[in-house]
Amino acid sequence: MEKKKIAVIPGDGIGKEVVPAALKVLEVVSQLNEDLQFDFTEFPWGSEFYLKTGEMMPKDGLETLRDFDAVFLGAVGDPERVPDHISLWGLLIQIRRGFQQTINLRPARYFQGLDSPLKNPNGFDIVVVRENSEGEYSDSGGRIHHGEDEIVIQNAIFTRKRTESVMRYAFQLAEKRRKSVTSATKSNGLVHSMPFWDEVFAEVSEDFTHINTKKIHIDALAAMFVTNPESFDVVVASNLFGDILTDIGGAIMGSIGMAPSANINVTGEYPSMFEPVHGSAPDIAGKNRANPIGQIWTAKMMLDHFGKQALGEEVLQAIENVTKQGCKTPDIGGSCSTTEVTDEICRNLQNLI
Ligand code: NAD
Ligand code: IPM
Ligand code: MN
């Protein structure tokens, strides 16, 4: 019997609703599979914690999390009360960086029964491999000069090591899928970072000559996610481009409330972290109407990470069955609550496993 130690951080807003929903689903998975058990430890870190203590998590937070097999996070952010750069850099980004979770996997695919805004949404199945630790997300820079001549500098940092590593990861993933990698670039506007990005992409692609490659400027690529998403398999993107593309990936699935993500520490030295693409959605928090599917699909990605792909597929199948039946939250055109969708997914899973 395997017991996985999971650190659970519900965080803020709807994180506190969708995380318990996904844990319910994982409980069903373990009830039906005695050889996989979970030991969940919850941490009350986030904006409430900050307002009480002045910190988003304790100083030794990373040390505490280090012994776990994975971190399962909801969302962070309470923008009315805590500035976003403080809440996010104090928790989410600190964990991504501290645990060298350099790869962010973000799938988007069509589900039957979804209320996609696309006219003809059939058949897209994309994974965005986002660089997760550097690039445009950098604390290098600052305000120089003040007054009328005020200037702010925000540096973007691209290392060869991480750029090459995210690209290799994307190519290796494409080998197991439909053998195509698209690189999100912007080398027509950004004169240092993106020509470098293109250069590394071309170099890495030489080791994978059996994989089809395309490089598309991020603006055009964003439009193509809407007009012909079925033409993409694996997309490799820098931190910011990947962030923006994956909200579009969520939107074409019907809602960003659908979209899952995995922050992977490739060396295995530190735990990986699983959290959906969406944020804390303060506009709908506390109303039992948040879509729990992004968080539940995120739990599926954690099962995959533990080598339990078959169980993960069952979870995905249960999600699809439930959307097809029409039990959906309002963001994807239904009138079910978070709890109803979750219970329906659990019931469905019980019949599948
Ligand atoms: P958001 O993703 O929280 O919400 C954007 C819109 O999508 C809102 O209308 C919201 O109601 C809707 N939405 C999001 N998730 C949903 C779900 N599961 N079901 C139904 N509808 C859903 O983005 P935002 O408004 O830009 O950010 C709110 C806060 O969350 C900010 O503090 C932001 O910094 C933070 N944030 C955190 C994360 C994270 O922790 N990973 C990610 C994104 C944003
Ligand atoms: C995400 C979020 C974060 C990001 C923010 C909240 C810092 O938007 O996980 O997509 O940009 O990485
Ligand atoms: Mn985002």
Automatic annotation (TrEMBL):
InterPro entries per record: ICDH/IPMDH, IsoCit/isopropylmalate_DH_CS, IsoPropMal-DH-like_dom, TTC_DH
EC number(s) from the headed UniProt entry: 1.1.1.83
Entry keywords, A to Z: Manganese, Metal-binding, NAD, Oxidoreductase
Enzyme category, top tier: oxidoreductase
PROSITE patterns, per the entry: IDH_IMDH
Metal-binding keyword on record: yes
Catalytic function, reaction form: (R)-malate + NAD(+) = pyruvate + CO2 + NADH
Record-annotated Isopropylmalate dehydrogenase-like domain positions: 5-345
Cofactor: Mn(2+); Mg(2+)
GO MF, one example: tartrate dehydrogenase activity
Keyword Oxidoreductase: yes
Family membership: Belongs to the isocitrate and isopropylmalate dehydrogenases family.
Family matches, as PANTHER family: D-MALATE DEHYDROGENASE [DECARBOXYLATING]
Identification of the protein by name: D-malate dehydrogenase (decarboxylating)
Organism whose genome encodes this protein: Pallidibacillus thermolactis
